[in-house]
Amino acid sequence: MAAPLRKVALVGGSGHLGPYILKALQADSAFDVTVVSRQSSTANFPPNTNVVKVSDVYTKDKILDVFKGHNAVVLSLNFAAEFQHHNMLVDASVEAGVKRLIPFIWGGRIDLLEAQKFFPIAASKASLLDYVRSKVGSAPGWANGLFHDLSFANLRRRPDRTVYISSFETSMNEILAAYKSATGVSGWKVAHDSVDQGIKITQETNKTSQEFMDKMRAIGLLGLLVGVKKGLGGDFAAEGLSDIELLELPRSDVTETITQLLKG
User: Fold this and answer.
1) Number of neighbouring beta carbons within 10 Å of residue 68
2) H or E segment and range at residue 11
């Protein structure tokens, strides 16, 4: 039987996703968690969180010292840090003798070439995944589709392969209907268009816009369109890929989920 993965280093415990990962890990007494945070970060962490500050440029020697003695490393970086530091952090994990590395490969079916073709982030993630494979031989990751609300599953039940997580399958029309039901707000003006046309227009915006935020919005919309376009693997349950039962995670209902999110 494999030794338990007790000591876990989490790089990036703040931001959009990090706090959810940290909360899930700290909720399980089986884990002893260390958060690796940038020196300049002003993020606040829960009381009694073990936080190690490192240089904003993530010097490898310091990272290697932090990783030594840890059984697992979880990477949760923003996009800028990901492109600058991800591969170095992978190298440091290997050199430190970490048993399990969970790289920053969150998302849907980034292995599909069509998704990589029109969604820049999918192509970037695929490149990172290839680098992990070159270093450790296998490339486990999390295929969770779009983050409807952010979540993280139990490390101990995770097999050494990509894990497919789908709490529920839905559509934009169903989400809108659930929102209307939860809020009682009506009178929406809804326009329908094809996903392919949306991809074409959004790609052009991303290519030609001179405004940074316009490009970011375009990339975000492309991520949404990847998730809803048929044939790009967005429906894990229909493909028989879902690991929801393996990880003993509950199924959710879209209306109940949206209602809870709106309550904060």
Assistant:
1) 13
2) strand 7-11
C-alpha dist (Å) from residue 50 to 32, 44, 167: 9, 12, 31
Whether residue 91 contacts residue 76, with contact meaning beta carbons closer than 8 Å, is answered with no
Per the structure, the count of domains in the chain is 2
Six-digit token pair at 255? 């209306």
How many residues would you count in the chain? 264
Same-domain pairing of 158 and 183: no
Strand order in the sheet with 50-54: 50-54, 32-38, 7-11, 72-75, 100-102
Q: Is the pLDDT of residue 151 over 50?
A: no
Give the domain-ending residue among 148, 164, 180. 164
Rounded CA-CA distance 33/94 in Å is 19
Element (H, E) at 199: helix 195-208
Q: pLDDT over 70 for what percent of the chain?
A: 84
Q: How far apart are the first and last CA of the chain?
A: 41
Span 161-208, pLDDT tens digits: 677 777 888 888 888 888 888 888 878 888 888 888 888 888 888 888
Q: Write the CA distances from 110 to 115, 166, 201, 251, 258, integer angstroms.
A: 6, 16, 21, 23, 26
103 and 179 housed in the same domain: no
Q: What pTM does this model have? A: 0.57
Closest CA to 232 of 118, 96, 104, 97: 118
